[in-house]
Amino acid sequence: MEPDFIFTIFYGLPRLGPGGAEYTKKAYSLLGDLPENPAILDIGCGNGAQTLALASLSSGNVCAMDIHRPYLSELSVRAESEGLGDRIHPIAASMDALPICRKFVDLVWSEGAVYFMGFREGLDYWKGFVREGGYIAVTELSWFTTDPSGEAAAFFEAEYPAMKTVEQNREIIQSLGLEDAGAFSLPDSAWWDEYYLPLGTRVEAMKQEYAGDGEAMAILDMASTEIEIFRKYSREYGYEFYLMRKK
Predict the structure, then answer these.
(1) Distance between CA atoms of 183 and 27, rounded to whole angstroms?
(2) pTM over 0.70, yes/no
């Protein structure tokens, strides 16, 4: 039940993770000398909130990859409604088995998805699909402190034990032979406006619908706990936008 139920929780929400068009735009603006019509690969695109922003910011083509086909269908509808259907190409594929040629794209983009593979493992694999001089841009859940509060530390020890500090992740980037092209933290508003506020409303409504279903309620309660942890400890962790270049 769990994977399908989680997809149900998120279906139709504006975003599937923290972010916003303005932060996608900021990150994109920091990448120098991209081709006029860049080939972009958006990995783990979900319902494509950032995919639409990337297509609007560039005049290139965006291959949007995700393993969950209903999200890709949702993206296709959104792309057509915004007049971007001819430049956004949804592809059902796993991020650890990309069905494209190596050294093919100018820019690999992934917001909130690299953790599925692991920060080091994902970047090490994905860099092989970027041409020399091309870029990778990802957001990753990161510690902003080396001494987090006990409650926050315990929560992520259970949910994401591989989570590292910003400094540690930037060291990983350099150890992989990638040029560190900068980083910036997403503000609290990037979590609340289009993500946690609509998600919280959805979760509370589903708690009424699934009352008595222990498995469903456990998942919904975990979502509520996650939101509350961020409310209390957002100064200690968040999403960092990491930008890097293939030398």
Answers:
(1) 8
(2) yes
- Residue 246 tokens read as 């293939």
In angstroms, the CA 35 to CA 50 distance is: 19
Nearest Cα residue to 17 out of 238, 244, 165: 238
Task: Look at residue 134 in the predicted model and tell me its pLDDT.
Answer: 97
Kindly report, residue by residue over 74-86, the tens digit of the pLDDT. 999 999 999 999 9
Rounded CA-CA distance 15/19 in Å is 8
Domains and CATH numbers, the chain: 19-151+160-187+236-246 (3.40.50.150)
Contacts of 84 (CB under 8 A, 6+ apart): 52, 55, 56
Q: Which two tokens stand for residue 50?
A: 């950032």
β-pair partners for 64: 42, 90
SS3 call for 41: strand
Contact of 62 with 40, CB cutoff 8 Å: yes
Residues facing 240 on adjacent strands: 140, 185
